[in-house]
């Protein structure tokens, strides 16, 4: 049957993907007309001289069009990850972690596969469904730690992968070594992939350490790590990340990337290379403030009259129980927006409806205004 000549096009239901939760929150905020506090997660820093110089030099270079990523960037990433990482066979540079995750899922999953995802969780739903697979969500415990028994019970004959955040966006949960080992062990027993978004791995608090799944590759090699360089390296505006995976998966992802984008922009990759290989003082100074900012916001929320949030072990986010601000998620959202606070609704994160995600990466004076805004919202109820 010929297609309709109508000027309007009806998309198949399978292509009707909801808006990303963070962007829909931004759009709701814009519609209010209320000035919003500049709440951020990743650091926004002036680029230092060595990065600026690398960018200026890159602007005069020919485009290498390397679909796997600049060799010097992949070498710098491998040097950061450890001596056993082969930059030629195991790394693929991507347009940020979101793009990397999309490539991974569309490469390793087939229609009807199931992906086990502990919740609350980042915005994985759309990427999983775009691959043709379906998420199998497993609620975490009240303290946001993974429910390992629940994850084991979620395994079915159609299970293909376990998908994690480490540390978890939005809760800030930082799994310890035993938990990561248990997840990888579960995957090994059932022949599953483990995919981990480690974008916030440099942000661990209270002298705790980040434990990557890659550390267990000798136990179970079917591990994939997706990472953004926007966080610790303050490269959010450059949209650069990478995927660490077994060679055959990297090969397949590279072919897919060639068809959809050819390669990532070279100038951004030169900027990232300079950030990884140059001095780190400008980055470490900012990262060192995040635990203090976490405490400021957690203590302020508790003092405001809302329940004290679970204190994050890493990252730049927390889940706050704002049920006292309204009877529905929409009421809570409106109460915060009236006071200039943009937050992600719990439903967008497979979290309780009473909760919202707040970020604490902004400057401390902004975070103090955030606490004041929450207090004012409570007084209005």
TrEMBL record:
<dbReference type="GO" id="GO:0030170">
    <property type="term" value="F:pyridoxal phosphate binding"/>
</dbReference>
<dbReference type="GO" id="GO:0006520">
    <property type="term" value="P:amino acid metabolic process"/>
</dbReference>
<dbReference type="InterPro" id="IPR015421">
    <property type="entry name" value="PyrdxlP-dep_Trfase_major"/>
</dbReference>
<feature type="domain" description="Aminotransferase class I/classII large">
    <location>
        <begin position="66"/>
        <end position="373"/>
    </location>
</feature>
<keyword id="KW-0032">Aminotransferase</keyword>
<dbReference type="InterPro" id="IPR015424">
    <property type="entry name" value="PyrdxlP-dep_Trfase"/>
</dbReference>
<dbReference type="GO" id="GO:0008483">
    <property type="term" value="F:transaminase activity"/>
</dbReference>
<comment type="similarity">
    <text>Belongs to the class-I pyridoxal-phosphate-dependent aminotransferase family.</text>
</comment>
<protein>
    <submittedName>
        <fullName>Pyridoxal phosphate-dependent aminotransferase</fullName>
    </submittedName>
</protein>
<dbReference type="InterPro" id="IPR004839">
    <property type="entry name" value="Aminotransferase_I/II_large"/>
</dbReference>
<keyword id="KW-0808">Transferase</keyword>
<dbReference type="Pfam" id="PF00155">
    <property type="entry name" value="Aminotran_1_2"/>
</dbReference>
<keyword id="KW-0663">Pyridoxal phosphate</keyword>
<dbReference type="InterPro" id="IPR050596">
    <property type="entry name" value="AspAT/PAT-like"/>
</dbReference>
């Amino acid at each position: 049957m010929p297609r309709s000549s109508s000027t309007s096009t009806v998309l198949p239901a399978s292509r009707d993907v909801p808006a990303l939760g963070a962007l829909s929150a931004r759009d709701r905020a814009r519609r209010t007309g209320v000035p919003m506090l500049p709440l951020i997660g990743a650091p926004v820093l002036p680029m230092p001289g060595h990065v600026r110089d690398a960018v200026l030099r890159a602007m005069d270079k020919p485009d290498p069009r390397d679909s796997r990523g600049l060799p010097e960037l992949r070498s710098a990433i491998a040097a950061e990850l450890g001596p056993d990482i082969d930059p030629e066979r195991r790394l693929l540079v991507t347009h940020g972690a979101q793009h990397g995750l999309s490539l991974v899922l569309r490469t390793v999953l087939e229609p009807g596969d199931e992906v086990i995802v502990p919740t609350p969780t980042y915005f994985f739903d759309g990427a999983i469904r775009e691959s043709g697979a379906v998420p199998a969500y497993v609620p975490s415990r009240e303290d946001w730690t993974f429910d390992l028994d629940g994850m084991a019970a979620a395994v079915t004959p159609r299970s293909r992968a376990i998908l994690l955040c480490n540390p978890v966006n939005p809760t800030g949960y930082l799994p310890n070594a035993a938990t990561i080992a248990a997840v990888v062990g579960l995957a090994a027993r059932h022949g599953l992939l483990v995919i981990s978004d480690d974008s916030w791995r440099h942000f661990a608090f209270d002298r705790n350490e980040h434990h990557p799944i890659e550390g267990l590759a000798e136990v179970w090699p079917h591990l994939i790590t997706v990472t953004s360089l926007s966080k610790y390296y303050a490269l959010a505006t450059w949209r650069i990340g990478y995927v660490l995976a077994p060679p055959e998966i990297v090969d397949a992802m590279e072919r897919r990337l060639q068809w959809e984008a050819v390669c990532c922009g070279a100038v951004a990759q030169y900027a990232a290379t300079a950030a990884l290989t140059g001095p780190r003082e400008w980055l470490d100074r900012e990262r060192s403030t995040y635990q203090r900012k976490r405490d400021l916001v957690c203590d302020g929320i508790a003092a405001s009259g809302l329940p004290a949030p679970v204190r994050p072990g890493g990252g730049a986010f927390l889940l706050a129980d704002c049920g006292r601000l309204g009877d529905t998620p929409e009421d809570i959202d409106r109460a915060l927006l009236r006071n200039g606070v943009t937050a992600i609704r719990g439903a967008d994160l497979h979290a309780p409806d009473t909760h919202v995600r707040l970020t604490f990466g902004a400057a401390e004076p902004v975070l103090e205004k955030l606490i004041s805004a929450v207090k004012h919202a409570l007084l209005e109820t």
